[in-house]
């Protein structure tokens, strides 16, 4: 994940090679964390059950994992780095699985920018992020050419993955025939400026209702009362297509949907409306069950603020990486059941829209 900070369970700096390896070949199964025909954590549901690798599912989900490599001696992490790969599979289990009830999961390995890159000057961020993005883009083009075949699809990502997904939407989806197949993009974990929807993404707007299709649902999760938002914006990045470079969102108005009500604005979604979180990171409870009615959510200061504070000791642990009140690692885990239900709702809306007669 971005923000100059590590992902959950990555508690020590990893030793790795001095250079990123060669570009992954997406014709090979080993270049994917998940795709049909591969046994992967993307097929799990909470409690340890495994769903069938069902080709009859009506949609696809293209998932881009967050930063999982903390390598200090290279800018881009080789796709076969064992520690980064193990954490990527962990995030796949948590973040892609809300969609496996309606979609086949496609999740590429890619030469992600290593964690320390995000703490550098912006000039030093450009090349590593561009290399990582080119892998993601090639993987998506491969999926479109070989697997999509006119199927509706979701784009799902988190943090660094969301950085690349937003750029991917502008480069490959907006204004193309693929746009009509996009059910929705779920891109939590990075500040998304409202301004990006005035340019290349003018035809792929932010999601403002739970049934809107062809839109971007973006959010970042913090405890109600958290205040260090400018610091968070300053260490995260988005692709500014007008400038042709990665930059920070500091000082910009952001887009943020409420991940329980799936609406914009500051109206509280009460605890009673929360369909359920999936515990993350605590031995004995990790991904073991769905915990409903855990938090209420309101949007303020351009982020999703939750109350009451979830029981971190028993249900959620990011390894002590983030300061109190920053729930970045849990952007999807806290709303696992809400996302799963909304994905089905949006797909139903897409199917009804697609079946409606013209005019």
How would you portray this structure in words?
By secondary structure, the protein is α/β, with parallel strands linked by helices. It has one domain. Helices cover 24% and strands 15% of the residues. It has six helices and 15 strands. The protein has helices at 82-95, 122-148, 160-173, 229-234, 312-315, 336-355; strands spanning 32-34, 44-45, 49-50, 59-64, 103-108, 153-157, 182-186, 192-193, 216-217, 221-223, 238-240, 245-247, 254-255, 296-300, 303-307. The strands form five sheets. A six-stranded mixed beta sheet has the order 1-5-4-6-7-9, sandwiched between helices. A hairpin with a 4-residue loop joins β11 and β12 (245-247). The longest helix has 27 residues, at 122-148. The termini are far apart. The relative contact order is 0.15.
Topology:
Blueprint: E1 32-34, E2 44-45, E3 49-50, E4 59-64, H1 82-95, E5 103-108, H2 122-148, E6 153-157, H3 160-173, E7 182-186, E8 192-193, E9 216-217, E10 221-223, H4 229-234, E11 238-240, E12 245-247, E13 254-255, E14 296-300, E15 303-307, H5 312-315, H6 336-355
Parallel strand pairs: 4-5, 4-6, 6-7, 7-9, 10-15
Antiparallel strand pairs: 1-5, 2-3, 8-13, 11-12, 14-15
Count of alpha and pi helical runs? 6
Question: Distance N terminus to C terminus?
Answer: 44 Å
Please give the largest β-sheet.
6 strands, mixed
The radius of gyration over CA amounts to 19 Å
**In which range does the helix fraction lie?**
10-25%
* Structural class by helix and strand composition: alpha/beta
Hey, roughly how much beta strand do the residues contain? 15-25%
Q: What is the 3D shape?
A: globular
Order of helices and strands: EEEEHEHEHEEEEHEEEEEHH
Overall tally of structural domains: 1
Count of DSSP strands: 15
Mean pLDDT: 91
Widest beta sheet: strand line-up: 1-5-4-6-7-9
Unreliable stretches (pLDDT < 50, length at least 5) are 1-19
């Amino acid at each position: 994940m971005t923000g100059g900070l590590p992902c959950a369970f990555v508690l020590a700096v990893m030793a790795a090679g001095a250079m990123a390896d060669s570009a992954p070949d997406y014709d090979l199964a080993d270049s994917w964390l998940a795709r049909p025909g591969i046994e992967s954590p993307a097929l799990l549901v909470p409690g340890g059950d495994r769903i069938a690798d069902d080709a009859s599912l009506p949609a696809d989900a293209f998932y881009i994992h967050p930063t999982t490599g903390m390598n200090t001696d290279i800018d881009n992490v080789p796709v076969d780095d064992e520690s980064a790969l193990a954490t990527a599979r962990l995030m796949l289990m948590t973040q892609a699985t809300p969609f496996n009830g309606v979609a086949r999961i496609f999740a590429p390995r890619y030469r992600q920018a290593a964690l320390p890159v995000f703490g550098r000057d912006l000039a030093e961020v450009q090349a590593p992020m561009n290399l990582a993005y080119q892998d993601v883009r090639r993987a998506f083009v491969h999926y479109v050419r070989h697997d999509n075949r006119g199927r509706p699809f979701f784009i799902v990502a988190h943090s660094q993955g969301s950085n690349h997904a937003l750029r991917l939407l502008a480069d490959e989806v907006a204004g193309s025939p693929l746009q009509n197949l996009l059910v929705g993009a779920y891109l939590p974990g990075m500040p998304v400026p409202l301004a990006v929807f005035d340019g290349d993404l003018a035809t792929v707007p932010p999601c403002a209702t739970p049934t809107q299709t062809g839109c971007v649902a973006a959010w970042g999760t913090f405890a109600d009362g958290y205040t260090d938002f400018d610091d968070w914006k300053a260490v995260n990045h988005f692709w500014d297509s007008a400038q042709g470079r990665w930059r920070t969102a500091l000082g910009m108005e952001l887009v943020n949907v409420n991940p329980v009500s799936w609406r914009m604005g500051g109206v509280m979604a009460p605890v009673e409306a929360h369909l359920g979180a999936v515990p993350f990171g605590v031995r004995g409870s990790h991904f073991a069950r769905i915990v409903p009615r855990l938090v209420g959510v309101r949007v303020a200061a351009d982020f999703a603020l939750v109350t009451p504070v979830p029981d971190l000791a028993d249900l959620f642990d990011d390894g002590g990486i983030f300061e109190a009140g920053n729930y970045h690692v849990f952007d999807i885990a806290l709303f696992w059941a809400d996302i799963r239900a909304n994905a089905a709702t949006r797909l139903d809306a897409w199917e009804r829209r697609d079946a409606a007669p013209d005019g």
